Fold these 2 entries.
Entry 1:
Amino acid sequence: MGIKLKTLEEVEQMRIAGRVVHRILRQCREMCHPGVTTLEIDEEAGRMIEAEGARGLFKNYPTYKPGEGFPSNLCISVNDCVVHGIAGDLKVRDGDIVGIDCGVQLAGWCGDSAVTILVGDVERETRRLCEVTLRVLHLAIENIRPGRSWSQVARLMQGYAERAGMSVVRDFVGHGIGQEMHEAPKVPNFVVRDLLRNDIVLREGMVLAIEPMCNLGTKDVVTENDGWTVRTADGKPSAHYEHTVAVTADGCDVLTDGR
Ligand code: MG
Ligand code: MG
């Protein structure tokens, strides 16, 4: 259960997977206009994953029910959907926020990234939720460096979101990533006693998927009967951004920003 540090060569392999994820998310953004269905976006992502010679990490992701994996290529989570939204005939409308999460494995290495796309004329407070959540992700990226403990970073993330009047979802956390999508350690976007007891000291070669989820209202979430779709308990909007980043000698290197 130890943390697998990556060599510089392995980090470069992960960047190649990360570039594929970035290209897919860019294409999804292009398509994300009123009238398009989430299934159309998902099918385009499926075609791109195949054309890149990659493997989608979400499709058929196992659940506790045998034989029933996750049904989509992407997680597409609209408005009050926090994460793990399933693509379907839902049409994107003006004013929606559309969270799209994409993970692929290429030549054995994984990349994982998510964006929240603002469609047309989004309400001011919802726009601010997205800005704050994106800023929370970048605050983490700017503050990662070897020798620092993750709780210091998480405290900055939580503090920024809460001072801006947003809540931080507690039910999902970021994660180590490498040859598997989910590796040790867990990297929460908030500070709890459990993290302080088992704090992670950041080290060069750690690769982490950092993914803050913030809500406009309550931090509490509910899971629908499909076993996947997670919504805010009060129906208010939720935003999610994610990058895969490698800890370097003096900071961190984002592997899913298309560079
Ligand atoms: Mg993801
Ligand atoms: Mg992730």
Entry 2:
Amino acid sequence: MDKPNDLMDKLVSLCKRRGFIFQSSEIYGGLNGCWDYGPLGVELKRNVKNLWWRDMVTSRDDMVGLDASIIMNPKVWEASGHVGGFADPMIDCKKCKGRFRADQLYYAVREGQSRQGGSASVWFSAIADKVEDASAVMELQLKKKGRQIREWTNDFELVRYDQEQSEQAPCPACDEKGSLTVPRAFNLMFKTHCGAMEDSSSVTYLRPETAQGIFVNFKNVLDTQRLKLPFGIAQIGKAFRNEINPRNYTFRSREFEMMEVEYFCHPSQADQWYQYWRKARFDWYVNLGLRSDRLRLRDHEKDELAHYAKSCVDIEYAFPFGVSELEGVANRTDFDLKRHQEYSGRDMSYYDDQTKERFLPYVIEPSAGVDRSVLAFLCEAYTEDEAPDDKGLPQKRVLMRLHPKLAPIKVAVFPLVKKDRMQEIAHKIHEQLKGRWNAFYDEKGAVGRRYRRQDEAGTPFCITVDGQTLEDQTVTIRDRDSLAQDRVSCDRIVDYLSEHLGN
Ligand code: GAP
């Protein structure tokens, strides 16, 4: 069994080697919290977004789409509460200039008797989202300091950072004691200026969520589409947050993409729709291959709720680095429409012709991260097993068991060897398939190696044109997961693939 970090290391290395994900501006040393999707990654990401759009928008009667601008009037962010409240408590180290989120700092204190006698305390520090992660880091630190630690008798106690402890607690980066400042609010929005003047009148922000673009367009959409409640407005787009500690690969980035639905309904039906969306969104991940025993719904505690939410649940996934949020489903009440009504002076209400009632709708918001979904699908797909090589001997292989709907390349076509007739037929098959699916042609190297490359890319099927093809116009179609090879007549390839790929 791989240790979680080994698995992450292997995945990160495969993603770079095969062109799923690269570090942003790598040749200049990269930029923390920013990532680029390579030729395979962009297809995977596009498939995630297209499937979400199809399932949330085009296959439903109660949903419409929107594509709002990233830079909006700054009053939007005053009304939404982001200018005043979208902040993390931040702590700086005066020595090494490190910056940490106060709620992610943990300290282990150990009170006890040393062998030499006398009571003392030892401090260790770690940055982590959760107590479990923090204790794993602490254990490592304990091991590193080995001899010294064995002198202590009692178990150490794990405590979250608080102001009193800041004087003794060491910096988690440089170990210096007494170097940490008290927490200060740090707004996560990226600021910029619109136009030539760089003064306070031109300040604008890169959006930290796509949701507000939907709320400010509520009336436009309602009036132009003649919609009746309940209905939803969906949007996919980039969002930006100046995260203090971007980490865990793409999990916490500074630039990322969101897939958000704002589902408007009568306040009396909000609880019912909240329940509906919790289940619908959980099932969506399961249907695309995330194992349900690696997913869980975690209700927010009252003190954890965002300022706008009456209730909220996180859909969490067991990533190799810990169980972490994939998507949030929140009951945002009428908070946003009310605030925009107040700040803009525009009426945001809905009028029901039948009941003659005028009111501000409630909103249920399933809000998913594209990059986090992609990361979860990649983690789930990474598999190591054994497969026979060209000589029939068992060899270790790495494969990405991506759901066929998510796979960047659906089918690869090979001539067994570089012989004119075989190449010609293989090219013809490739030409025929590529109009319909993302198909890949490869004739370089031994066929076994070509299979391995496609296994790592997550390609569900490989078609091989061999000697028998020249005699009876059949090819082999190899299944990535079972390694089974079916002999299929050339004129049945399209039917075979559409049956097995499900489209
Ligand atoms: N409109 C609601 C909202 O923005 P959120 O929980 O802050 O809620 C929603 O974000 C989703 O966006 C998260 O569940 C996560 O998937 C994704 N997300 C948030 N911050 C992210 C980051 N720094 N990097 C990658 N994805 C992020």
